[in-house]
Design a protein that fits this description.
By secondary structure, this protein is α/β, with parallel strands linked by helices. It has 10 helices and 23 strands.
Length: 427
């Protein structure tokens, strides 16, 4: 196990934070099993700070771990299959829709490809040293919930009356499609080429830097003519900014998805155990979601009312009016030495102010404790960034105030929320 202060965390790469050691657990595609979530809940209760953090790439984090407990935690995580390859501990970012296989708009179910990609990545030593933030995405339909620009992304499309994937690098469409049967081989081949091109140019192994290398796309297309087919049609998918909440239909008769609101992307052990046990009891399908949430997938419709009515007793809700919808915050000064504000407290204050109100379409608020902006997401409605003299307030990407007190900044965001609601009502 490695412990460092400047490394992206993994299970075997614990990072020292202000409140103790931090580990991040890879969950490819967010496809987590009930016994795995239950184990993480127990570890959080017994050896961490009593919370499970859900990340924007559908992984899990435990924090405030003591060094003496680390070996036991690692062994427990390995036993439930969440550490299948020690060498690839931090090669973890494989994302898909949390509704994969359950979405009526999908062209194909990407889950088998997600699992096969993960298996092959772990089988090759060359991929062990990929940048910890290097991300793969396979989208089976037109709705994309990931807000990040993934290094390599496949987006399903009907091409010449057959299922294909558009391939993008660093968020930019390459102008090529690949057959479904070749999808995983193509991802791996492109990744190898990205590694080679980056090393030749002394650049970080990230697709967004590789695509800026002169003739990089030509090198890739020339090397892979057997996999890539030119296409002038752009990918059809669109990013969904809202975090769904409530009970939603699936492609399966008599089955629904139940999606609770998870305040600031943090579950406590009781909540996590209930979700795991409920999924297990009713033969459901747990999914971690990129909006830092969780989906009880494919649950019997007859059980939905019972489950939804129980959620408030453990601090969860399917109403979507708890005020936390769309709000993200970094660890703040309780967990990070770099933070200049208690952003979690301020986020909770904002949520209390907004509680009971409707949520404007696309509403997102980021609160960051310093200029590193660990809570940052693309295209936020409002962003609060803490400095030595207070918050800087950005609205729609434009700075509108600096050195604000928490009260001023939160009141301004609440007023913006009210204005957006009023605009919708006036239409």
């Amino acid at each position: 196990m490695k412990i460092g202060e400047h490394l992206c965390p993994g299970v075997l790469h614990a990072v020292q934070a202000k409140d103790g050691l931090l580990i991040r657990i890879r969950v490819p595609g967010g496809l987590i099993e009930a016994d795995q979530l239950r184990l993480i809940a127990d570890l959080s209760r017994d050896f961490a700070d009593g919370t499970i953090e859900l990340t924007s790439r559908a992984n899990l984090q435990l924090r405030a771990i003591q060094r003496r407990d680390l070996s036991l935690i690692v062994d427990s995580i390995a036993k439930v299959g969440l550490l299948p390859s020690p060498q690839h501990d931090r090669v973890r970012n494989i994302v898909t829709s949390p509704f994969a296989g359950l979405d009526g708009e999908e062209l194909l179910d990407p889950r088998p490809l997600i699992l096969e990609l993960d298996r092959q990545l772990r089988a090759e030593p060359i991929f062990a040293n990929l940048h910890p933030k290097f991300s793969f995405a396979i989208h089976g339909g037109p709705r994309r919930f990931s807000r990040d620009l993934d290094d390599i992304a496949l987006e399903a499309a009907d091409f010449n009356s057959a299922p294909h994937f558009h391939i993008s690098l660093g968020g930019a469409f390459t102008g090529f499609v690949v057959k479904r049967s070749d999808a995983v081989d193509c991802i791996l081949a492109v990744t190898r080429l990205c590694i080679r091109l980056a090393h030749e140019c002394g650049s970080p192994v990230r697709a967004k830097t590789v695509v800026k290398i002169p003739d990089a796309l030509k090198h890739i297309s020339d090397a892979l003519p057997h996999l890539l087919t030119p296409s002038s049609v752009a990918p059809p998918s669109h990013t969904v900014n809202e975090a769904p909440v409530g009970v939603h239909p699936t492609t399966q008769d008599g089955r629904v998805n139940i999606i609770p609101s998870v305040a600031l992307g943090r579950l406590n052990p009781e909540q996590a155990r209930y979700l795991a046990d409920t999924s297990n009891e009713w033969g459901g399908d747990l999914r971690l979601a990129p909006w830092r949430g969780i989906v009880l997938g494919s649950m019997p419709k007859r059980a939905a009312d019972k489950i939804v009515n129980h959620l408030p007793s453990i601090g969860l809700s399917c109403e979507g009016r708890d005020g936390f919808q769309g709000i993200a915050a970094c660890a703040g000064m309780t967990g990070c030495d770099a933070s200049l504000a208690d952003v979690r407290r301020d986020a909770a204050s904002l949520a209390q102010c907004l509680s009971g109100r409707a949520v404007p379409s696309g509403w997102t608020v980021n609160l960051s404790g310093c200029d590193k902006r660990c809570a940052r997401r693309q295209g936020a409605t409002a962003e609060l960034v803490a400095g030595l003299s207070g918050y800087s307030l950005n609205i729609a990407g434009r700075c509108v105030a600096t050195n604000c007190s928490p009260e001023f900044a939160l009141n301004a965001v609440a007023a913006l929320h009210e204005d957006l609601i009023s605009e919708v009502a006036a239409r």
